[in-house]
Amino acid sequence: MPTPRRRLASTCVGTVTAGLLATGAALAAPDEEAPKGSDIAMGAYLDYGPSGVARIPYLSNWLGGKEIRVGHTYLPGDRWAGIEGNVSFLADWAAWRQEEDDRMFVLNVPMQERNEERVSDLQVARLIRAGAQGEYDSHFKRLAERLVGLGVPDTVIVLGWEMNGTTYTHRCGPDPENWKRYWKRAVAAMRSVPGQKFTFDFAPNRGTDAIGWTKCYPGDDVVDIVGMDSYDQGPGTDFDDQISQPYGLQQHVDFAKAHGKEISYPEWGLFRRGDNPEYVRRMLKWIEQHKPLYHTITDYCPHGVWQCKQNPRSSKVFKEALTPQEPGPVIPTPVVPTPVIPTPVVPTPQIPTPQIPTPQVPTPQVPTPQIPTPQIPTPQIPTPQAPSIPPVVPPVVPPVDVPAEPSAEPSVEAPVSPSPEVPVVEPSPAVPSPAASGPVAPSPAAPSPSAPVATPEPAEPTTPKPPVNNTQWCVPLNFGEWLSKLVGNQAVCVKLDWSKGRLWPF
């Protein structure tokens, strides 16, 4: 761990000059046109006052034009007046910060006076309780007003750094709970000043030290950055141990991520193991991997690499790693003309568009229902056939008067046909025919379905009486009641010629 004397205001100018000569730092003005390196904000603690500000351009020149974006200093912790910012060198740092918008001013602020006087734990506990009760709020408010007045309201405040150790009076171990309340009061007092934009960095030592640093964490509402001071010393024998040990580098990164905070390394450098280039190489690689908001190496002996001649190997590694790579000569890429290969014109085949016939959907024909007209069947009246009588040749007999026989024709009452148009066939005595032809029955007229037909009253049947000695015999025909109504009464007549002497054939 660095010795407390590095932050005392009694550092003389002669010592600073000797340090510059010992390191062989060039006093020439830096090359303003030099290329820039990594975009991670980088700086170094070179001195607390104006000489620290003056050395920044020379460090940049030594690093091949590397931009030094972080200016880092400490307020004296011997009296409250120094903690309030009543020191002249703050104006020099404020002027440097205002020259470039991307610069960062980091200020370590003690939380107790007599901060490096080895005050006992009993006294520290009493001071912590006084701070938790608000007795020191006014000191922090005056500091905030001083910084805002100098034009650096965005200063990064590393408040009560390395609180988990034993070196400083503002340590946390004697009363962690009241220490966290004290931190909250100090932050609230500084944030109460109009125009402030301060960022508060909680930066313990790597490792457990006197107390695990997570037990001193005051809360996400009053912490903006989770930092860590890490020097090449125990606990741990190598850099891998520094990563994996309890409260080590890995836990620091994980804790900040879990709380949504950025990380920083306000102090890092060589120490117990002397000139250790492997440590410098691994630490720079770790920084490049995890991208902290900023990092500053403590650059004086035994920690430094530029103002300390006793670490040449580590100095070489540091310089090679951070010096921007100079771009080589620009070799123009030869322009090889691209041969123009004509694109063959391939005729586009004409593919006939298939004609898809539109399907004809037949309109369904709803048939008109045909109501059948009732047909009245016309009765077929059979034509009566007269019996065929073979001619009989009778013997010649003298004419004898034969009395007329009574008619053998039965008297049948036939119903009178409803049709008045059916004629009554009368026997014709004037036609002497050996075979009587049957009368043709007229077709009865079918009654119209729309007009009723009056049925005449049936007349009494009249049977013609043949005359005496008549040669015509008539036999009435009976077709039944229904047919007789249609055709009327009919008869079959046979005419016999008695004058020729023929006998009755039966």
Structural description of this entry:
The chain is of the alpha/beta class and 506 residues long. It folds into two domains: 4-322, TIM Barrel (Alpha-Beta Barrel); 404-438 and 462-506, no CATH class. It contains twelve helices and eleven strands. Helix 5 crosses helix 7, helix 6 (137-149) runs parallel beside helix 7 and helix 10 packs parallel to helix 11. It is elongated and about 190 Å long. It starts with 12 loop residues before the first helix and ends in an 11-residue tail after the last strand.
Question: Brief overview, please?
Answer:
This protein has 506 residues and is of the alpha/beta class. It has helices at 13-23, 50-62, 80-83, 89-99, 121-132, 137-149, 176-191, 239-244, 249-258, 277-290, 312-322, 480-487, and strands at residues 41-45, 70-74, 104-109, 156-159, 199-202, 225-227, 230-231, 262-269, 294-298, 472-477, 490-495. Strand 1 (41-45), helix 2 and strand 2 (70-74) form a beta-alpha-beta unit.
Mean pLDDT: 77
The ordered H/E elements are: HEHEHHEHHEHEEEHHEHEHEHE
Strand content: 5-15%
Helix content: 25-40%
CATH superfamily of the largest domain: Glycosidases
CATH uppermost class of the largest domain: Alpha Beta
CATH fold assignment of the largest domain: TIM Barrel
Number of structural domains: 2
Strand order of the largest sheet: 1-2-3-4-5-6-8-9
Examine the secondary-structure arrangement and name the CATH architecture of the largest domain: Alpha-Beta Barrel
Number of helices: 12
Major sheet: size, sense and barrel closure?
Answer: 8 strands, parallel, barrel
End-to-end distance, in Å? 177 Å
Instruction: Name the overall outline.
Output: elongated
